Amino acid sequence: MKKFTLPFVIILSLILSCCATQHEPKDFFTLPISVSASLDGNGGQFSLDISEKECTVTFGDTHALSGTTLYFAKDGNTATVGDIFTRTIKNGTFPAQESLIKAIQLLASTETVGINEGDKTRYTIDEMKILVYYDENTDSITRIETEEGGRRFAFVIASLESHDTQSKSAGMP
């Protein structure tokens, strides 16, 4: 019996220690949140300010859409180009950014446990597959991949941090 007990205790302690280092989505995705990212293979950076009900996307100087601001909300979406004009946009007009917004909102609002696969954790929430890559050395999310409805996107994450947001009624475009 002692021969069986010692290996069992060692294996059990290894499993428990692995579980203790696993990061839950809520550890990183607490809304409201600001995310700076780019599509993998496309250096054009964009920033997201995400809350439970709305999101503002701005494009960096190196992005082809620099100077454009997108506003996504339940009551409608708009795109504003500088001070020139604002126009209503349909869902799906910016599928990559919308996919990242949805993934982060799902991770923040859903009680789910992912499958730890080394440097990444796999989640499936509401038919969306999400891979979150975590760097132990920097204690940060470095990459997020999404797949839904046959569309796949990979994002390089430059930064991800909680922040305070203001609603559209408080001066957003």
Structure in words:
The chain has about 170 residues and is of the alpha+beta class. It has one domain (about 25-165): outer membrane lipoprotein receptor (LolB), chain A (Clam). Helices cover about 25% and strands about 40% of the residues. The protein contains three helices and eleven strands; from the N terminus they run H-H-E-E-E-E-E-E-H-E-E-E-E-E. It has an eleven-stranded antiparallel β-sheet, with helices on one face. It is globular and about 45 Å long.
**Can you tell me the CATH class?**
Mainly Beta
Number of strands: 11
Strands ordered across the widest β-sheet? 6-5-4-3-2-1-11-10-9-8-7
**SSE string, helix = H, strand = E?**
HHEEEEEEHEEEEE
Q: Average pLDDT, to the nearest integer?
A: 83
Query: How many structural domains?
Result: 1
CATH architecture: Clam
Task: Using the coordinates shown, work out and report the CATH topology.
Answer: outer membrane lipoprotein receptor (LolB), chain A
Fraction of helical residues: 10-25%
- What is the SS-derived class? alpha+beta
Radius of gyration, CA atoms, in whole angstroms = 19 Å
Helices and strands in order, then pairings?
Blueprint (H helix, E strand, L loop, with lengths): L1 H20 L3 H4 L4 E7 L5 E6 L3 E6 L8 E6 L2 E6 L3 E5 L5 H15 L5 E2 L3 E6 L2 E8 L4 E9 L2 E12 L11
Antiparallel strand pairs: 1-2, 1-11, 2-3, 3-4, 4-5, 5-6, 7-8, 8-9, 9-10, 10-11
Characteristics of this structure?
173 residues; globular; alpha+beta; outer membrane lipoprotein receptor (LolB), chain A; eleven-stranded antiparallel beta sheet; 3 helices; single chain; 11 strands; 42% strand
